[in-house]
Amino acid sequence: MKLISDEYKEQNRLLHESKTKFGQRGHRHLNQVRKLYKEYKCSSIIDYGCGKADLSKACRVKVQNYDPGIPEYDIDPDSADLVVCTDVLEHIEPELLDNVLSHLQELTLKVGWFVIATRYDRSKTLPDGSNPHRVVKPGKWWKAKLSNYFTIEQFLDGGGEAYCTLLKR
Hints:
This protein is α/β, with parallel strands linked by helices.
């Protein structure tokens, strides 16, 4: 199943390479990840779209890092109890979004923690000059889309981001 085009993969690789701070915010969700890990009795975690792998550096448990834009993390992960996908889905190519959501559904054994930007990021551009946010939709749209793949446990929409706790169906 195709998750990213070769051209867009290269654009992301170049952006990660040139902007050292790009992809370094995964640790900001550490408290929520710990809460879900404990609440759902998880024994494994994937950071899907891990960027610079900051979540795994901050976490006290092993985290599988996956990010096709970073060569060292471009290995399809094994399924996990908890799948963390923060600041990723808005970056997916629109024509491949359903493939990525299907992949996330397959990988999630118990619960997912997704954070999705619902606004454009004007602070950076890809090397080709385009905005890295490819799917910018309101929270209501994302909620309906995600409900095709997961049972929605919690969905909070505000401040330009949607915060989602999603359960395996």
